[in-house]
Amino acid sequence: MADRNGPLIPNIDIARPRPYLPRLLKHLFHPVFAFALICAVGCNPNGESASGKRKKERQKTAVVEQRDISFSISVAGEIGPAEQVSVRPEVNGRISELPVDIGDKVKSGDLLFALDDKDLQIELETRRTEIASANLEIRKAKQELDVADQEVELDLRRDSITRAKLEQQKAKDDHARNKILFDDELISKEVMQSVESAYELAKNAVLQAERNLQLSQERFRKAKERARTNYELATNAVLKAQRNLELTQDRLSETRIVAPFDCTVLTRSISAVGQAVSGSGGFNSGTEVMTIANLNEMIIDAHVNQADITRLSADMEVDVAVEAVIGLTVKGRVERIAPKATVRSGIKGFGARILLISVDARIQPGMTAKISIPVVSAENALSVPLAAVFTEQEGRYVYVVVDGVYEQRAVEVGVSDYRFAEILSGLNAGETVSLEMPGEDAEVKEMPAEKDKGKRG
């Protein structure tokens, strides 16, 4: 037998029926009522009322039987797709292609709509021209850098210094040799002065060659820096042109919007080709062209009362009845429950997302569904109809019918739904119970007072 920690009986007041015969007799003598009654009887030769023919005689007794009883609460929710996307363009433009309409089924990767891309095609060619020009500049700068790296002029200057130093050494040797001869008065003063002048000129030539090398090195350094700067600028220009080309290509690819998954078109706000739309990067988040959804996976967003949320848990299976399709009940699985309560329509509760395990083709987004949350249940339980159980302050009891005698008997009630109640004690299978209070002329065997007191004790 299943768990019985929940409410034993739903919120149905099982009370002793009030006597209605005096009021009926009071109205029976009303002239209008009496006239209608005479006409009804007169029109029927058998004296049977018309409503009596249409209605079956109400059942007055029932047999105690064993059956499965389950009690659940219902929560209303709205069915919607698990995946729904608002399709908006990322760039501004005009609609050039619109091949799908409301209700069309689209495969993943198929075209939903396209924007006019003539301006972007022109821009794409411009970007490619910029890249070609930048590549020419970088090749020119590379050549200049290669020339600057050769250091031809510096090599020439170094050779000049080497030759000047050789000439200086030769002049120095001549000067030393002639100085000895001059001191021995073997050469004239004029010859000595000529040797000294040649030596001074050789020294000055070395100094001039060294200054020329320094000047060439400075020019070379500046030229090399200039060539390197030009090369870097040309390289940056190429990179910038390539980035601009990639941005243009991205914008061009964004003019063709394809389905991200197998879907169905739910709405389409654009009426015709040629209508201007704004991109999602704008201040108004762009123009919604259409909405798409995957109708193969449907969910229900329900708001469960805080008093009932503890009966739900993740991965729990529930029964879902679709109101729009009479008799259709499918299985659902609780995917997640909101961790925080919210107030909806004045009722505090928790949001619950329920995935439909099997989606019937007749189920459409927006339909209302009722989710049955199991509360308590009992299998193969001894049971009677709820109408057979009467309640007083002393407890619950039934009337067992034995050979026309009504025996009042106390019972213990367990699990119940909206039709039957489980009887834990007081009855046996096969006994007959009354579904209404015994009449005034019926023979009733009431419970002994001592038994009642013992039960209350």
Question: What's the structural blueprint in terms of helices and strands?
Answer:
Layout: H1 21-28, H2 31-43, H3 50-54, E1 61-63, E2 65-87, E3 93-97, E4 105-106, E5 111-115, H4 118-150, H5 152-183, H6 189-253, E6 256-258, E7 263-268, E8 276-277, E9 290-305, E10 317-322, E11 329-337, E12 342-344, E13 347-356, E14 368-385, E15 390-392, E16 395-402, E17 405-410, E18 412-416, E19 420-425, E20 432-434, E21 444-445, H7 449-456
Parallel strand pairs: 17-21
Antiparallel strand pairs: 1-20, 2-9, 2-14, 3-5, 3-8, 4-7, 5-6, 7-9, 9-13, 10-11, 10-14, 11-13, 12-13, 14-19, 15-16, 16-17, 18-19
Helix pairs in contact: 4-6, 5-6
How would you explain this protein's 3D organization?
There is one protein chain. The protein is of the alpha+beta class. The chain has 4 domains: 127 residues, conserved putative lor/sdh protein from methanococcus maripaludis s2 fold, CATH 2.40.420.20; 89 residues, Elongation Factor Tu (Ef-tu), domain 3, CATH 2.40.30.170; 61 residues, OB fold (Dihydrolipoamide Acetyltransferase, E2P) (Beta Barrel); 134 residues, Helix Hairpins (Orthogonal Bundle), CATH 1.10.287. Helices cover 36% and strands 32% of the residues. The chain contains 7 helices and 21 strands. The strands form 4 sheets. A 6-stranded antiparallel barrel has the order 2-9-13-11-10-14. Strands 6-5-3-8 form a 4-stranded antiparallel sheet, with no helix packed on it. The longest helix is centred in the middle third of the chain and has 65 residues. The N terminus and C terminus are likely disordered.
